[in-house]
Q: What sequence folds into this?
């Protein structure tokens, strides 16, 4: 089965428009608000009766597609294409077999926190090493099907890597705007390797967005930042995967890093659609964690006036170094609708949490580790209970920012010594002889007893 129709709905006014009528910056000219993709069976339309009886059949179909050799079926995004009918022809999907990422248990960390159930959905295991691939496959497929030759994004690193890879796969040209000196080299190297025109601007991420918005208004270039609603259609699919991997049991709480804030919005959309269509009986609480140096949504949640005030972002968790997030209103609505919360984590808390996740043998980039750092605070504040089943979203691979990891283990980060010391494993520099090595090994063994 498949659906062929969709439209775009302004999240502010509720006005609906045809997909080809949207502005180049994906904002409603009257309200300035973003759009979301809406289907005939979306919650905002209410017509799901015809699909609900087919939920069980779709579960089986999606499982069967995992055994298929077709690239579109092997994709952990497009095998759910029945719930994202955004292409006129599914053969136009541009895929690198993204998705199908692992759901790891974190037994040591769970024990440390007194939790019975703690899992990590590792989106860093996507083809370019971050969750951005799930949204890029959908949005770039739309761009390619509509005949665009050029695509562009502003990025703190992961978006640029994903866009460049999928553009190369589709034979499109890609333009990347990156704030100079403010992204990890592991990410910058990817956009160059995949053939993108990479432009480093002497500004921050928000300055890059502002300039790019002007350029796409005046040129036939398709914008692929997360304001693009088709990005969120792909990024909602990890919600389906999580439910599948838990045998369609819903976790109590999902915790997401907060940068430009589209990811939490997308997951909320995914879980909500699943409930509306009868796949699950409830939606988990969704909480968003920001870096303390880039925390406009946290401030919005904690100030009385309920106004979002952009900040000058400053954090070594480069993927979430964003001071004026485009999707903040979408994210805030999801958090409030699901009963979640918004927290912040300082640089020390992020560094220690990253090392704790690494000690599980998994690893992630710094921005992902805010989820664990935030979980600790949510437990203390009572927003998470010890008996709840919690899933952390890890959004990027540990090799995205190896410099950060090296600096932590060599004690070059300004971290709390008492908290960080148990997790530091700096390399030993020894004389090249057996006695030196054996003394070091004996000392290590004695210390571990």
A:
């Amino acid at each position: 089965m498949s659906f062929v129709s969709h439209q775009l709905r302004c999240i502010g006014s509720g006005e609906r428009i045809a997909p080809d009528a949207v502005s180049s910056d994906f904002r409603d000219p009257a309200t300035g608000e973003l759009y979301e993709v809406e289907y005939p069976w979306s919650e905002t339309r209410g017509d799901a009766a015809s699909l609900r009886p087919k939920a069980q059949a779709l579960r089986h179909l999606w499982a069967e597609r995992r055994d298929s050799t077709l690239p579109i079926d092997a994709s952990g995004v497009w095998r759910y294409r029945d719930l994202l009918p955004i292409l006129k022809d599914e053969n136009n999907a541009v895929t690198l077999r993204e998705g199908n990422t692992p759901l790891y248990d974190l037994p040591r960390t769970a024990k440390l926190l007194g939790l019975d159930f703690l899992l990590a959905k590792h989106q860093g295991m996507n083809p370019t090493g971050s969750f951005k691939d799930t949204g890029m496959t959908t949005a770039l497929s739309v761009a390619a099907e509509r005949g665009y030759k050029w695509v562009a994004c502003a990025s703190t690193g992961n978006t640029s890597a994903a866009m460049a890879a999928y553009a190369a796969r589709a034979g499109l040209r890609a333009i990347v705007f990156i704030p100079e000196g403010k992204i990890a080299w592991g990410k910058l190297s990817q956009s160059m390797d995949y053939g993108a025109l990479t432009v480093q601007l002497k500004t921050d991420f928000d300055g890059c967005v502002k300039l790019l918005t002007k350029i796409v208004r005046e040129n036939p270039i398709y914008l692929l930042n997360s304001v693009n609603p088709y990005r969120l259609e792909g990024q909602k699919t990890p919600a389906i995967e999580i439910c599948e991997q838990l045998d369609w049991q819903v976790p109590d709480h999902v915790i997401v890093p907060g940068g430009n804030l589209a990811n939490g919005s997308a997951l909320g959309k995914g879980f909500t659609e699943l409930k509306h269509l009868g796949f699950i009986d409830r939606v988990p609480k969704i909480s968003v964690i920001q870096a303390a140096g880039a925390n406009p949504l946290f401030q919005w949640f904690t100030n009385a006036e309920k106004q979002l005030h952009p900040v000058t972002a400053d954090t070594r968790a480069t993927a979430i170094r964003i001071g004026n997030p485009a999707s903040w209103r979408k994210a805030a609505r999801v958090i409030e609708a699901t009963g979640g919360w918004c927290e912040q984590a300082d640089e020390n808390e992020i560094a220690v949490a990253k090392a704790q996740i690494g000690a599980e043998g998994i690893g992630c980039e710094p921005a992902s580790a805010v989820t664990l750092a935030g979980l600790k605070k949510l437990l203390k504040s009572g927003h998470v209970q010890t008996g709840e089943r919690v899933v952390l979203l890890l959004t990027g691979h540990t090799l995205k920012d190896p410099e950060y990891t090296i600096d932590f283990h060599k004690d070059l980060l300004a971290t709390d010594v008492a908290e960080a010391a148990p997790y530091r494993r700096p390399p030993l520099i020894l004389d090249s002889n057996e006695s030196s090595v054996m003394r070091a090994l004996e000392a290590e063994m004695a210390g571990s007893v």
